[in-house]
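Appendix B. Chain record.
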Amino acid sequence: MALRRATFRLYPNKQVSEMLHYHRQLHKDLYNAAVSNRITSYKKFGKSVSYFEQQNCLPDFKEVWIEYKEINSQALQATLKRVDFAFQRFFKGLAKYPRFKSIRHYSGWTYPSFTGWKVHSTGDKGYLELSKIGQIQMRGKARLWGHPKALDIVNRNGQWYASIVLEIDDTLLKNSRKTDNGVMAIDLGCNDAIAWTNGEENGLVAAPRFFRKAEQRNKQLGKAKRRKRAPNFKKKVKASIRWKKTQKLVSKLNRKVANQRQNFVHQETTRIISGNSTVVTEKLEVKNMSAKAKKGKRKKQKAGLNKSILDVGMGMIRDALKAKLSDIGGLFVEVPTRQVKPSQTCPKCGNQEKKSLAERTHVCHNCGYTQQRDIAAAEVMLLWYSNNLQGLGTSLSDVDDSSSTSNTSKRKNAGSMKQLGRAKRQKSQAPLGDVETPGSNEVSQG
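Structure tokens predicted for this chain:
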């Protein structure tokens, strides 16, 4: 069995929408109460509060705050686990100290198991049934459908979404793996988003520049927003109605750009894996590439380059390829950039010469080979993978098999509902059922 996530847009009526906002408010208040309990207990009594202690207090808590009796108990436990997760990340140096959340920064809640909700769908549209809330029509389409295991209800930019974790049968997953056994090397860039080669054919995919096209409109809205009364929480100044209207337009524009980029990434990565089970690309550290320039180092030019890098969505393309290749049992290979230097290496003779970013054509002064710069880099990576690159060979330790779990073992674990369930079983020496849940603060695969 494999776990996959499918996200649907929800269309609640007015009454159900009010109930969704009400439940979201209750979960936010419980989150803040749990954070306050941990802080107060440590400051006043020097005692740390564990998740188990807070969970055991839930029955007494609901006797005082009777409105929480209407909420699914496991959903309340998942909210407390979110608090525990935030503190564990802080103690391991992975995040800042947990803070109280306003309703603006609390997206939704989680049903960690198949209780308190039902989904009536076969993967294409349908409706969702939430206990104590009602039925909600949903739109969307899942690539594969299986047995629902967990659910996230998320409010993003004023719209409601349901992110469902599905348990997919291995047979169904295997039947969906239909692709040719081709090998393709791709090079990601700012002028051309994707330069590809399979050894016989070459191609370029122009960068869509969604953010750049919307930048002028974004500046106009930003200027209009600065002319209106902005909120100041320290001085207790409320935002004006005009400021709120302009902010909605800014959010709508940013959401449109994000959706356009996500759609572009999905279409291009699907096209790539439709005929190739192996994809070779260079190892890119997008976070380091888009870091701010140091003082006195042409900060404006670096800021413009950072915008172009992030506008392409290089990290999104890489992650989407790894995920989709994992589904079809393919292979995702990252070429060691510092060792191979694809942009500086000639694919014909292996000679390396430094080039500036302004040089868009590869011209080898050793063998005379001429090619578009990004396509030449993709050819170098393909030759490196096939062990035919002059002067350099493939190292198996550099190959990333996306279908394996070797990379996940390197991450610092900060606790999950699955690990918590294992600890419970060890403590009570009796199985307590499945309490697995997806990620905490946003819709992401757990």
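Further analysis of this model is presented in Appendix C.
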